[in-house]
Amino acid sequence: MARIPYFNIDQASPLIREMLSSRQMLNVHRIVAHGGATAEGFMTLGNAILRRSDLPAVLRELVILRVGALCGSEYEVFQHRRVATQAGVPPEQIEAVLSISKGNPSPSIFSPLEQDVLRYTDSVVRDVKASLPLFEAVASRLPPQQLVELTMTIGFYMLVCRVLENFEVDIEDPAPQ
Questions:
Q1: 157-172 mean pLDDT
Q2: Residue whose C-alpha is closest to residue 85's, from 95, 94, 76, 77
Q3: Rg (alpha carbons) of the chain, rounded to whole number
Q4: What is the pLDDT of residues 56-69, one digit of tens each?
Q5: What single-letter DSSP state applies at residue 89?
């Protein structure tokens, strides 16, 4: 059970109601909506990452799942397993990216770019700043826009996980399709 009551979206500002009108209503939205203007920024950035980013969807979802796993966020992992599948991430990659204890991603499952991006994700989550060789490896494979989007995706989903975990947001019942 969430630590605070879920926000009644009918009482939200017109802008928040409009932002949520094109989305599936999830409990995370009903918690974030308490944030007023910060909720607007949160939803705007989340929408940009999910719908308007140039970062390939498969890379984005591998990163989001990895951040969710590293942050111990069951809700985030639950929601993005479905999104990752819809984006075309193979089931064996989904399971591998969620297995934190296995260390570096397997070359037989992930492309060299995916391996570098996952190592970069691990480093940014755990150490804040990736080493120069790791940064350069990713930067040599992604254009600057995608590199910035990658880093912003990692940071945004770290925020999402912290909101989910601190407010103990419940996974929807029944689960969204």
A1: 97
A2: 94
A3: 16
A4: 999 999 999 999 99
A5: -
